[in-house]
Design a protein that fits this description.
The chain has 240 residues and is α+β, with helices and mostly antiparallel strands. It contains 9 helices and 8 strands.
Length: 240
């Protein structure tokens, strides 16, 4: 709660009227957090741990998913929404979205509790909630490609400095990806791919009184993308 209050206060200080959606996994679906969000006018989308009552409420939807799986042999999903309240821990009933999924290994039900009761269930689960996994991908990207996991020195401060450098590098590459690579085949590439294909290339560098010139190999396969990146960076980000 302390961290959440601090983050929300900083956002509201700069963007007073922006809609804020708090998104997290089931470990955060707690009465104290949900009630506070509701009191503050914040929306939330939290994973909700399954239990027998929730599974029973989605039994019919799961049967439909199982029949679809039987016809096609492919994983099938059926979404539905309903009001739900725990027996004692919640102060009120809340909007729950259920994913009744049937796969080759059997039933795979999942649940989300949210204030966004006007959003279609499938869109809310697949586009809003599941997108939180992309944040984990970005953390892994920084660790694997930009060496954020190299914190092996004996002092905390030096490890923190290494993490700062890695974070700065990620922000630079993220800007390069968002602005420079916009409209190119590398627009959605990971940092490691950008380093390998765009930055780690051989060139002949010559320095004179008037200029520094570098010559890339004529067979460089991403020459067109390289030129487009330069132009995009000169033009700056597109207006929102």
């Amino acid at each position: 709660m302390e961290e959440l209050k601090s983050l929300i206060a900083q956002i509201r200080e700069r963007w007073a009227k922006v809609q804020i959606v708090v998104r997290a996994d089931s470990g955060f679906a707690r009465e104290s957090i949900m009630s506070w969000c509701e009191e503050q006018g914040l929306d939330y989308v939290f994973g909700l741990a399954k239990n027998r009552r929730l599974v029973r409420k989605t039994a019919k939807a799961m049967k439909r998913a199982r029949r679809r799986f039987g016809r096609t042999g492919q994983g099938a999903r059926v979404f539905e929404a309903f009001r739900y309240r725990t027996r004692s821990s919640w102060s009120r009933s809340r909007h729950v979205v259920a994913k009744a999924e049937y796969l080759g290994k059997g039933a795979n039900p999942r649940f989300v509790v949210t204030t966004l009761d006007q959003v279609p269930p499938r869109y809310l689960y697949e586009q809003l909630y599941c997108a939180r996994g992309d944040m984990e991908n970005r953390i892994k990207e920084q660790q694997l490609n930009l060496f954020a996991d190299r914190t092996s020195t004996a002092r905390m401060r030096s490890n923190q400095l290494r993490l700062y450098f890695s974070s700065f590098a990620y922000l630079l590459l993220h800007y390069l990806r968002r602005v420079g690579l916009h409209g190119t085949e590398l627009a959605r590439a990971q940092c490691g791919t950008i380093r390998l294909k765009l930055l780690k290339i051989g060139a002949l560098v010559s320095v004179s009184v008037r200029r520094v010139r570098f010559r890339m190999a004529s067979g460089y396969p991403y020459a067109a993308a390289f030129r487009q990146v330069l132009q995009n960076l000169r033009d700056g980000p597109a207006p929102a």
